[in-house]
Write a structure and sequence with these properties.
two-stranded antiparallel sheet; about 10% strand; single chain; alpha/beta; six-stranded mixed beta sheet
Length: about 240
């Protein structure tokens, strides 16, 4: 039996990315509900579909507050701290964008102080980590982004209220995935956002992932400015 060695039809990253988004845009319009998104929201939705290959799950479950995309871009340009629940998010984010917009990624889950706080307060490390981060950066713009631990959401909301943080300087990206407290935490986040007028984006239900947080931030960065490289448009990787 002969085996024929083959090369990929497309072999340049920018070409692959462009083709992928052409396919996504052509297919997404076939799904009910896609037309409800504005231009900026569609850019983020398409990026999430690109990351997951899931059309219906994203389109049916993503929730944007009225000015979420405007606020997200605004805070990134104001050098917002990116307070996240996992180091996986830090690893996935583009160093180019982080350096360009001077956004420091804050993840304290492995700090000795957080281990002690969690033990004393009988909470998860994710809960303690976001409490500590909000205490330290309460006077600065913040993007609070959760892709894994629903306890992060409870801690973030409760700390924002207790510390009397200016909520105009905050946006929530709530994408935890799983079973325990996941749906309930997102509902709590949505209730908080609606009650206090806080901007945010939620993937409702059990669905979510840290990679979706990364994709959402890259989509927002690209909406601020689409950078050229020797290989074409920079795609955030």
């Amino acid at each position: 039996m002969n085996f024929k060695i083959q090369e990929p039809p497309l072999n340049i990253g920018d070409q692959i990315s462009l083709k992928s988004f052409e396919m996504i845009q052509a297919e997404a319009v076939e799904y009910e509900g896609f037309d409800r998104f504005d231009k900026n929201e569609k850019a983020l939705v398409e990026r999430l579909i690109h990351t997951t290959t899931c059309f219906k799950e994203i389109i049916d479950n993503i929730y944007f507050s009225d000015n979420a995309m405007v606020k997200l871009k605004e805070l990134l340009e104001k050098k917002a701290k990116l307070i996240v629940d996992t180091n996986m998010i830090r690893s996935g984010l583009s160093k180019f964008y982080l350096d360009k917009y001077e956004n420091e990624v804050i993840c304290y889950v492995n700090e000795p102080e957080v281990f002690e706080m969690a033990k004393q307060n009988k909470t998860t490390r994710s809960y303690a980590a976001v409490e500590l981060a909000i205490e330290k950066f309460k006077d600065e713009p913040m993007v609070l982004a959760c892709g894994n631990a629903p306890t992060f959401i409870y801690a973030a909301i409760n700390a924002l209220i207790k510390k009397n943080v200016n909520l105009d300087n905050v946006i929530l990206l709530l994408f935890p995935v799983g079973f325990v407290n996941v749906v309930e935490s997102k509902e709590y986040g949505k209730e908080f956002m609606n009650h206090f007028g806080v901007e945010g984006i939620i993937v409702e239900g059990r669905y979510g992932a840290s990679t979706m947080v990364v994709a959402s931030l890259h989509a927002a960065y690209r909406l601020i400015k689409d950078y050229d490289t020797e290989f074409g448009k920079y795609n955030g990787k």
